[in-house]
């Protein structure tokens, strides 16, 4: 046999060996999966953000995209996504504007207080009933768009809930208690100050009621 015949037999034998190995591997249920990940750190920033309330939300998000073939036939694709999220609402203290006390007065004056905002959304997505069209298939960009829209909808739903109000009440009363424990007086902007006074009155009423319940005097009459 000449050189080319021997080389051909070697290649055929090698190919047969690879095919046999793949067949045996499939039958044995062995798969060769490789995963690589690369961590990229873009930047680190110092922040002073405080979480005051958290909420848990579930939502069914329906996605549908209509596409016409030759401007005549509809070729829709659709998917149903169940979204579960944990939303943290709080404040960015870097946005607070303070007024410096004068003459050593122990009075904390806040000129401007930020609005509550969503600090983070931890979201879990599950796709159901994915139906692609004949030519209108799902792409990676479609899935990215779906997830972005679902997250934005969850953000809007959280801000329309009671979370911002709860966070606002929490931060005002916490700052009041902190200032009082240090012998300082807290002064907020007018609207916030009225809300704080209402919270203080409610807290004092709850405290009195709790003491009466514990002492049993409320049942003596």
UniProtKB/TrEMBL annotation:
* InterPro entries per UniProt: DUF4230
Source species of the chain: Spirosoma endophyticum
- Indicate what this protein is called per its UniProt record: DUF4230 domain-containing protein
Pfam family, any one: DUF4230
């Amino acid at each position: 046999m000449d050189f080319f015949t021997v080389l051909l037999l070697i290649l055929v034998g090698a190919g047969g060996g690879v095919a046999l190995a793949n067949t045996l591997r499939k039958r044995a249920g062995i798969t060769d999966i490789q995963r690589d990940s690369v961590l990229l750190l873009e930047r680190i920033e110092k922040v002073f953000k405080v979480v005051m309330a958290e909420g848990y939300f579930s939502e069914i998000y329906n996605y549908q995209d209509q596409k016409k073939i030759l401007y005549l036939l509809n070729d829709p694709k659709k998917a149903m996504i169940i979204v579960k999220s944990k939303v943290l609402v709080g404040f960015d203290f870097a946005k607070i504007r303070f007024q410096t006390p004068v003459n050593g007065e122990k009075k904390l004056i806040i000129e401007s207080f930020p609005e509550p905002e969503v600090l983070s959304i931890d979201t879990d997505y599950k796709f159901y009933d994915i139906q692609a069209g004949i030519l209108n298939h799902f792409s990676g960009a479609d899935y990215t768009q779906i997830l972005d829209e679902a997250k934005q909808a969850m953000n809007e739903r959280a801000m329309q809930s009671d979370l911002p109000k709860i966070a606002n009440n929490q931060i005002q009363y916490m700052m009041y208690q902190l200032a009082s424990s240090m012998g300082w007086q807290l002064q907020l902007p007018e609207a916030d100050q009225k809300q704080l006074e209402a919270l203080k009155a409610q807290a004092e009423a709850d405290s009195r009621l709790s003491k009466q319940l514990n002492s049993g005097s409320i049942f003596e009459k």
